[in-house]
Amino acid sequence: MVPPTAPPPELELGLDAIGQVVDRELTLGDVAAQHAAALEAQIGILRPRRAVLTAVAKRGPTPEEMERGWSWAELSLDPDFRAGVRRGAREHAAGLPDSALRRWMLRRLTAANDRAATGTSTCSPWSTADRSRSA
User: Fold this and answer.
1) What is the extent of the structural domain holding 39?
2) In terms of Cα–Cα distance, which of 13, 76, 84 is closest to 47?
3) What is the predicted pLDDT for the residue at 121?
4) pLDDT at 6
5) How many Å apart are CA 74 and CA 51, to the nearest integer?
6) Are 23 and 59 contained in the same domain?
């Protein structure tokens, strides 16, 4: 038996966007890129929320712990806060004796700084590939 397939994704274009495509003011690719950027921003906001809710589901925290968790999730969205955490981690790594761990930390932090400088930063300095290797 062939598993059912999901319907093709919709771009959810509004009438204004459809009009701009029809009038050739924008290409369909331009509209898709705008939607992709908007989704990426939403995903960036939802990722820390999911992390907090997953922790809540596993631990059953007190209301005070919940408040702290939400505060950390909100802070993680602040670029200045993330930059400060990266600075602190870099300073900590610089004080470690030379080791594979120190070199790994410094490579990850350098990559995170590069992503932040180009506007492609995520909430975490660790790439998806790195998270899967450490799990």
Assistant:
1) 14-77
2) 76
3) 55
4) 54
5) 12
6) yes
